Amino acid sequence: MRTVTAHTALVRGLLDPMLAELAQATPEHVGIGHPELAGRVIAIDLTAATPLPPFENSQMDGYAVRHRDLLEAAEAAEPADPAAARSASITLPIGRTVAAGDAPIPHAPGTASPVMTGAAMPVGADTVIPVERANPAHFTELSRAGDPEPSGTVTFASTPPRGEFVRARGSDLPAGATLLTAGTRLTPARIGLLAGAGVAEVPVRVRPRVLLVATGDEVADPGAIRTAGQIHDANTPLLAALLTGLGAEVRTRRTGDTAAELQHILTAAAESVDLIVTSGGISAGAYEVVRDALTEYGVEFAGLALQPGGPQGLGRWAVNGSAVPVLCFPGNPVSSALSAELFVAPALRGYAGRPEALPVEQRTLAHELHSPLHKHQVRRGRLDADGRVHVTAPGSHLLADLAAAELLAHVPVGVEHLPAGSPIEIWRLHD
To answer: How confident is the model at residue 21 (pLDDT cuts 50, 70, 90)?
Structure first.
């Protein structure tokens, strides 16, 4: 039987060239406020057209002053003692007020201009004293540009350092600096950065288009009335959600156990998808529709030293000039889900700007387990209060067990028995 490692290499040989080509395709432009922008991937390097912030502004509600005026007033009050001068109280007349959104105005030397958080610094002022440090400790006389001349005074208990509470132009990023590089995944904070830099539309990588085909006469639509011998289709919603969560654009089809029907579906879709994924119909039974339909077109089917998920298929749907990668998973839901996690998810996560691998940890097994000697067994499980691993039965149909799993525990080939207390590798599943 083929090893998991060998099969993984074959899958990456199919997926990596396809994804590399998609990464170089003409980007899609998505509006900065579009709800689906989060999680997309920047297609090209983006640079700041202007500095961030674009102008010098106040970090606090307070008074903009010239530091020189404070020093001169303090020295006049305590001319013989510089240390005492720095802590001497200073009274200045109130100047013009600048609110957030106002254009910058000249600062009148020798005054204290009320300035609001985010407002442009008055030209000539270089320091902000918070209103809480002033006397009175609230704004009293406010007169913006165009209003009558300001009146009143304000007193400060001491002289702060020059430049305090002033945000310098370009102190976040200078003009021309890189905002985000190609291949970066867009998080809310990164979207905020682009918005703050004035980016209205974001060039992002196109998403991989995946055709997902579930097969089997025994499968009924979710919610439909089942006939005798049928089960509801869990694979399509499960795999569609998994692939969508990995950044793919998924379309779904379902077919019975008729090879010609499946071939028709694949031929019709081949020109408009980047990857085909099937579930079911690849084992050793008499009515294995995927194997029957695809073998003659060069898709290879093999048994892996893996439990669950031993039957696998891969190749290309090469019909009418197309050559679309095809991955074929078993029909049991757990086998199908684990196959997607083992073989497809890493490549798609990498394309989506995320770490390819799930978080890997070494933990202690809470109880003994048995595994087929010549297979790599993947068990679902959870951690107890002491951080020990509890695994559940290896059945490939146990949907409730899969839904409750917090982790995947890996038992390598060559290990038939692990006693309680043994170390075991786990992959932590994301919620």
So the answer is: very high
Question: Residue 287 pairs with which residues in a beta bridge?
Answer: none
Instruction: List where CATH 3.90.105.10 sits in the chain.
Output: 28-53+173-204
**Contact indicator for 277, 329 with CB cutoff of 8 Å:** yes
Place of tokens 């798609």: 348
Q: Distance between CA atoms of 296 and 382, rounded to whole angstroms?
A: 43
Q: Give pLDDT tens digits for 174-221.
A: 999 999 999 999 999 999 999 999 999 999 999 999 999 998 877 777
pLDDT in tens, 53-65: 999 999 999 999 9
Buried b (16+ CB within 10 A) or exposed e, 10-33: bbeebbeebbeebeeeebeebebe
Calpha distance 394→387 (Å, rounded): 21
Pick the CATH number of 360-428 from 3.50.50.60, 3.40.50.300, 2.40.50.320, 2.40.340.10: 2.40.340.10
**Spatial distance between the Cα atoms of 220 and 146, rounded to a whole number of angstroms:** 74
How far apart CA 143 and CA 153 sit, in angstroms, is: 13
Residue 378 pLDDT level (bands cut at 50, 70, 90): very high
The structure's pTM equals 0.85
Condensed to tens digits (0 to 9), the pLDDT of residues 330-354 reads 999 999 999 999 999 999 999 999 9
Q: What CATH class does 4-23+206-351 carry?
A: alpha beta
For the chain, give the number of residues. 431
Owner of token pair 């996560």: 349
The H or E element spanning position 399 is: helix 399-404
Residue 140's pLDDT band, with cuts at 50, 70 and 90, is confident
Superfamily assignment of 28-53+173-204 in CATH? Molybdopterin biosynthesis moea protein, domain 2 (3.90.105.10)
Q: Please state, as a whole number, how many other Cβ atoms lie within 10 Å of the Cβ of residue 117.
A: 16
Q: Which residue has the tokens 């300001």?
A: 150
Fold annotation for 57-167:
Molybdopterin biosynthesis moeA protein; domain 3 (2.170.190)
Helix (H, G, I), strand (E, B) or coil at 75: helix
Instruction: Answer whether the bond into residue 53 is a cis peptide, omega within 30°.
Output: yes
Q: Is 122 exposed, middle or buried (0-12, 13-18, 19+ CB in 10 A)?
A: buried
Rounded CA-CA distance 190/2 in Å is 43
